[in-house]
Design a protein that fits this description.
Layout: H1 2-17, H2 19-31, H3 36-53, H4 56-74, H5 78-89, H6 100-108, H7 113-146
Helix pairs in contact: 1-4, 2-4, 3-4, 3-5, 3-7, 4-5, 5-7
Length: about 150
């Protein structure tokens, strides 16, 4: 309960104080107009890496307000990139804090951290490709069906 409460408080404070927007604008200035596909891959990779060192809830509450300015500056659709970042934030599999299943496996003492990192790295890389492709295709299907 304390972890979830702190995550919500951190995300809320970042939004209320404007830190998320300042952070997003700073990143947007650095990347320039790289194109929507690159922005999608960057958002996915950033969300996965961020969720490796924090809980999924913290990752989503911090990244979702931060990503839209970066997407606009990079030439991508802010909604699409925010969806990609949201799905990616639940895809961290390298460290014990990333998911509850990882914490349980690590707690058993049967799997060392270095093995979790080595295996999780390839799972995370595949996740970036699957999430960006899947969300993009799904949104195209939804647009075609809604017309």
């Amino acid at each position: 309960m304390l972890l979830v409460g702190c995550a919500l408080a951190l995300g809320n404070l970042m939004t209320l104080t404007g830190l998320a927007q300042v952070f997003g604008a700073g990143l947007a200035d650095r990347i320039g107009n790289v194109g929507p596909l690159i922005v999608s891959f960057l958002a996915s990779g950033t969300a996965i890496l961020f969720s490796e060192i924090s809980t999924n809830l913290v990752s989503i509450t911090v990244l979702v307000p931060t990503i839209p300015p970066v997407a606009e500056a990079g030439g991508g659709n802010p909604l699409v990139v925010a969806l990609i970042a949201t799905f990616s934030a639940i895809y961290g599999f390298m460290l014990p804090i990333s998911t509850s299943a990882n914490a349980i496996v690590f707690g058993s003492g049967q799997v060392p951290v270095w093995q979790m990192i080595k295996t999780g790295f390839f799972v995370d890389l595949s996740g970036i490709l699957v999430i960006v492709t899947g969300v993009t295709l799904l949104l195209h299907v939804v647009q075609v069906v809604s017309l």
